[in-house]
Amino acid sequence: MLSMGPLDQGGLPARCPFASGEIAIKGSAVKLLILDAGHCLSLALAREANRRGDTVLEIEENVAVSLEHLEEVAPDALVIPPLAQPINADPSAVTAHAEAVETCLDACRQTGLPMVWCVSDQLYEDGAEAPIDEHVIPAPRDESLQRLILTGNRIREQHARHLIVRLGPLFALEGAGAWLTELLDNLLTGREVRAAEDVIFCPTSADSVSMALIGMLQQQACGANAWGAYHLAGTEPVSAYTFTSVVRTQLATRLEGLGEMAELGQLVALNHHHDQPLRRVLNCRRVLDVFGVHQKPWRLELGRMLDTWCQAYKTQGENA
């Protein structure tokens, strides 16, 4: 188990702004237990907590936690990262994830501990013409996805102190489900990259989600008492193909600036929905109204990550 503490535990008390504009103060750091240590969101949460003086993390390798261990760690909340791309996952992996979440649910119910379950926007299998509001519970046709819906129903019915956080497709530079890492590797090695141009979504930075989750849980610890379902996603709906194209163009520009002439892999557009594009766009109004969390523009987050990647790439070349 990894333990990530604040940089300055003797700092000022955390200030928690509420939607009403009132300020509450909590003197001690909020302690979070994060599962699935290698997940890109878990790594992003660790980085964010390390920058702050009001949050302590305990990070578990496992994807579930027992009642005994939960009582031993005694966190203020349990956070479960999402299963990446459940539509494409093996059904046994989806079932295993659902069962692990339900194990965590039982432990949280017995201890009264708040539980945060992050889920993929792919549960909205058929999308919608308009942005999808938080109160709309997904109703997928796929049996594997239906198993996840049953888990969500259990959480809503049995444990009031929960946050179900639905996310757009996560991207990051490291960790399981990071997407951007695999995409950069494929482009750099000249492999063909295939992406749908008729599936529209909002790419979401794992770093921005980590900032939002910690902010939300800080406010909950200060007494916000705003449990339920929330949507978190990047701004500007875009197709998978367009997102991939932007990555390729920006990568080529940065490499050229470093004096590198790489033959990047080619892009191939796929079409799965011939009548009209499938739009899977999350309405994130509630998380703004309740917690003051703004969506982050995915283009800015992508540019920042590519700058970080190129700096590491340059340093690696100089040390070679």
TrEMBL record:
UniProt xrefs under Gene3D superfamilies: NAD(P)-binding Rossmann-like Domain (3.40.50.720), UDP-galactose 4-epimerase, domain 1 (3.90.25.10)
Organism per entry: Modicisalibacter xianhensis
Family, per entry: Belongs to the dTDP-4-dehydrorhamnose reductase family.
GO biological-process terms attached to the record: dTDP-rhamnose biosynthetic process; O antigen biosynthetic process
Keyword flag Oxidoreductase: yes
Protein's UniProt name: dTDP-4-dehydrorhamnose reductase
Pfam families on file: RmlD_sub_bind (PF04321)
Keywords in alphabetical order: NADP, Oxidoreductase
Database matches in InterPro entries: dTDP_dehydrorham_reduct, NAD(P)-bd_dom_sf, RmlD-like-bd
The reaction(s) this protein catalyses: dTDP-beta-L-rhamnose + NADP(+) = dTDP-4-dehydro-beta-L-rhamnose + NADPH + H(+)
Needed co-factor(s): Mg(2+)
GO CC list: cytosol
Enzyme Commission code: 1.1.1.133
